[in-house]
Amino acid sequence: MLDRARRDYQDLAARGLRLDLTRGKPAPEQLDLSEELLSLPGGRYTSVDGTDVRNYGGLQGLAEIREIFAPLLQVPAGQLLAAGNSSLELMHDCLVHAMLSKLPGAESRWVDQEPITFLCPVPGYDRHFALCERFGINMIPVPMTDAGPDMDEVERLVAENPQVKGIWCVPKYSNPDGVCYDDETVARLAAMETAAPDFRIFWDNAYAVHHLTDAPAELADLLGACEAAGNADRAFVFGSTSKITAAGAGVAFFGSSPANLKWLLANNSKRSIGPDKVNQLRHILFLRDTEGVRTHMERQRALLQPKFESVARILQAELGDTGLASWTSPLGGYFVTLQVPDGCAQEVVRRAADAGIVLTPAGATHPYGKDPRDSVIRIAPSYPGLSELEQAIEGLAVCVRLVGYEQQAAARTA
Ligand code: PLP
Fold it and tell me: Which residues fall within 8 angstroms of residue 48, CB to CB, at 6 or more apart?
């Protein structure tokens, strides 16, 4: 088996491939679905309430775009903020503001309570972890289960330590595992006792409408559950149209309690006189209504689903009976997680890069870039064309066999 894997790897390397599976970017055909955006708003410059979108002001964003996305993000339109082009930017700003301006319910600013700590369900999104590193926020990894983070562990950690101020959650089709938090997890997150009075759930619902099947996953309403549990200020909800319309020119959203929204607006008013409402109007005219978003996402799905099916088919054919790997079959979102034998992920990624297939660095799915088992590889199937993707996954499978069998051979001779 090892000899065959070595031959296959030599053949792979000789092909001189140049393939990139690193980031979950929409493919050009997906962006083409929103081409009409570029010709909008087409001479119109007032919103329904008469706002001149070309001018300053309107910090909370246009009401119509908030109404379109309110049901999708499970936030009442009046408690939703429509902002610039990036939800990651909103998460960054919320951290900075919490550091520098007392949150509702807080005893003091986070800078005055340092060191602070966030819980990080793993595997997770590397840019969340990068934000923590940027601001010197300690990270405690918490294992993911099929239903969300291990809630026994989360409840224990938030109850015992007032320095634990937050948790990162990608609750629907999580990055990278594709996990959807179940109702019990949402209820426990909303109701759990936290030692910190200013604890926040960073609810990054980046894939709220990004289904890959006919049966969209249902996510319980965190904001409503927090309010019902007497923890109205606990949830910060984020989302964006980055993977709905244009990844560099979409609209991002923040939703929360009235008190938190007021806090963010007050802080934002110091950094901007208002968001890009022309782009918001463009999105209103293009998407029309909530149903319009759903219809548009069906078109996205038609492009993405075949790619995910190919990944699953090739992994099954090439690795299914090797005992060397397991992988997720997500029902939505942008990623597949490939699990290889402990101690192999970095080497697989290195061999793949040497053969011209660039993957997300192994470890990126964990805080500080360190996967303690060195076994998780994130696959991002969206960007390459179908045939390029298939070549990349076939090549990746060769690398998994090579590294896995090499490890087994080394163990036998040790
Ligand atoms: N959150 C998650 C979980 C993501 O996977 C991504 C992009 O990959 C983002 C946020 C980035 O969102 P935005 O483009 O709105 O900044």
Answer: 63, 64
